[in-house]
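Reopening this one. Same input as before:
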Amino acid sequence: MPAAARPRTALPPARYLARRRDLGVLESGRACCAASGITTYLVDTGLPGDLTGPGEMASAGGATAREIVRLELLAEQVADTSGTADSFLANLAESVHGAAALAVAFTLGRGGAPPALPRGAAAGAGRGAARGGALARGAAGGR
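Same output, byte for byte:
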């Protein structure tokens, strides 16, 4: 924190850093989260690495936490178990619908190569997009 932004009652930087070292990484993180005043954390669970999940974040901050779901990860999981383009599209729709029950948002785009799709998925994707457009317009009844 810049010196001008620190309250006059704040510890000198060397004492502050020493206190954080004494508390340890987890406890100092909990203290910072709790003191932030944040009431709801939005946690992106699709980033690589062993990062803090929504439950752990909520506990650390004494707040609630909601998940942001990455669509490409759902697609990768579904692609691994779908043998055809039609089953891929059906399974993906089911997966997104299930995730929507708990997710606060969806995101797409982590960089890198797109997920590998089952053989024939490119042709099926066009049919799925057309079917999705029809659902969005209410032509097929929707869910």
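So the earlier flakiness isn't reproducible anymore. For the record, The radius of gyration is 22 Å.
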